[in-house]
Each structure stands twice: as structure tokens, then as C-alpha cells.
Specification:
Layout (H helix, E strand, L loop, with lengths): L3 E7 L7 H17 L2 E7 L1 H5 L6 H17 L7 E5 L5 H10 L4 H6 L1 H10 L7 H4 L1 H11 L4 E3 L5 H18 L7 E3 L31 H9 L20 H9 L3 H13 L4 H26 L3 H30 L6
Parallel strand pairs: 1-2, 2-3, 4-5
Helix pairs in contact: 3-13, 4-8, 4-14, 8-9, 10-13, 11-13
Amino acid sequence: MAKKIMLSGDRPTGKLHIGHYVGSLRGRYAIQEEGKYESFIMIADQQALTDNARNPEKIRKSLLEVTMDYLAVGIDPAKTTIFVQSQIPELNELTMHYLNLVTVARLERNPTIKEEIKLRGFSESIPAGFLIYPVSQTADITAFKAELIPVGEDQLPMIEQTREIVRSFNNTYGSILVEPQAKIPEDACKRLPGIDGKAKMSKSLGNAIYLADSADTIKEKVMQMYTDPDHIKVSDPGKIAGNTVFTYLDAFGKDKEYIAELKLQYQKGGLGDVKVKRYLNEVLQAEFAPIRERREKLANNKDYLYQVLQEGSRKAEAIAAKTLTEVRAAIGLNYFD
């Protein structure tokens, strides 16, 4: 029997950061190595253009940056198909068919879309392409009949809307599409805060540590991290909750017993922020030095990167074309067959 499909992806709007690593990349690698699913990863350049239409060069430059990040963390093109959304024209037609099955009001109620609109300050000037993002995502997922979609908790409303559209299509035209299931990361830290303590690590907020960051840059950012503002003296008792340094140690530290000891000492008083940050720096350097080294080698081989994307996109398009043929037949658009 054919393996079930796992689909995930990222918008190419810059280099990926360690929040992506915790939230999705580690999980994708684990699924790839487990081998139970056939893995597809999409670089969603068309979706990135919905709010970057006047800066397409940003997307073009980021395409290879994201590809390098994938390969550097262990995503293997021999095991996982990496493809580019814009190179699969079938996705656009599928999006058009699904738009007829959802209302504007339902799209505007999507909590993820509402939050993203607020974050980007669109107000009443919402690009239509951005508003229909959940429908486009439905096309991406259903084109491959993906059953497993690894996402963060903030993306659950998007997957639920995909499931609604799938049910609407199948009820209207027959059981053609597959209803996907979301998979939330099982890591201790599902969503890594920014180094400033804000809830979201973001490129736009300037509070991220990138997979491509040098050792010195990582150290500098760690030393800037938000801790407990009331922990002024080493002797002062400190708080663990909301302390970014300890959140990162929970996410990356392997010596859990030592980290537990640090937490107790910090809460009692007698442990300074600098000492904890130095230990966190050691942990992050050990985790990301090999990734950075692999990434630096890939940066000198752009032809190989484009080859990976081209071959993956060809494979993806063949699958999407098959699904579109089934969808057209179900709707009754196969006039000349």
C-alpha cells in the first residue's frame, strides 16, 4: 500500500529562525526519518506575494535561503519532496473551484487571518489574495491528498477551514478529496518566544535567532535576552515563568537534571543571569554549529539548490495534475474527454 502523505511548508520572506526549527523543522525531520509518511514540503512563494506583491525580489532571494535552511537541518531531497508553489499551476485552478464553496464572511471570521491582518496593519485595505489564504492552503493540501499537516497551535483554524471546504466539496460533488489532520509539535516548547520576551519570534520584530547566525551573533543575542526584570542582584530570588532564557533551555537543553538544578538555585537566589545565559549559549552553539556549517557549504552550490527545487516541483506537479483531473471530472468540467 502507498504511504500516506505529509505536507508542510513555509512562506519565503527571509531566512528561517530557531522558532521555525522548534515549531516545525525538527518535527518534519523526525517524520522523514520515521518513514511512515511520504513527505512533501512546499515553499509558498505565491502566498508570500499576497502581502509582498510590490517587493517580489524579497521572495526571490528568500527562495534559496529557505531551501538552504531545509537541507541544513537534515531534510533530504531523496526522502522528502521540496517544491515551489508557483511552479504548480494546478493549485491556482483548485483554489478557484474551492472559492465557490466558502463565503467572504467565513474567511473574515478565521481567527488566524484576523490576527495576521491586525499584525500587518491592513485595516480595511486587505489584499484579496491575502484574505483567501485559507482557500489557497486548501488547494495546496488537497492537491496531494495530504492526511498529516504539522502546524503550530496558531494555525489550527486554517486546517479546520480546510476540513470544512473538503467536506463541502465531497458533499457536493462526491468523495474525491481527503480530509487532513493537524499535528501539533510534542516538544516541551511548542512556540518559542522572541529574545525580547514577546510571545512571538518574528523577523519583523527583530527578536529572532536565525539558523544562519554566526557563533558571535548567537552569543550576542543570548546576552541580550529578556529574563526576570526584578532579578536585579545575584542574591535576589528569580522567576522562571516568562523567563526567556529558561524557556530556551527547556526547548534545547539535553541535561534536564542540571537545568532543574539551575531553576531551583535561580528561584532561591544566588544565581546570576549572566551565568545562565552563558550556559544557554553553550547549548545553542552545540545545537546549531553543525547546521550552520552545512548551510555555509550549500551557499556555494546554488546550481544544486535550484536542481532540488526543479526536480521536486516536477514530481509535485504530476501529482497535483492527477488530483485536478479528478476534481474537474467530479464537477463535470471534462467536456472533451
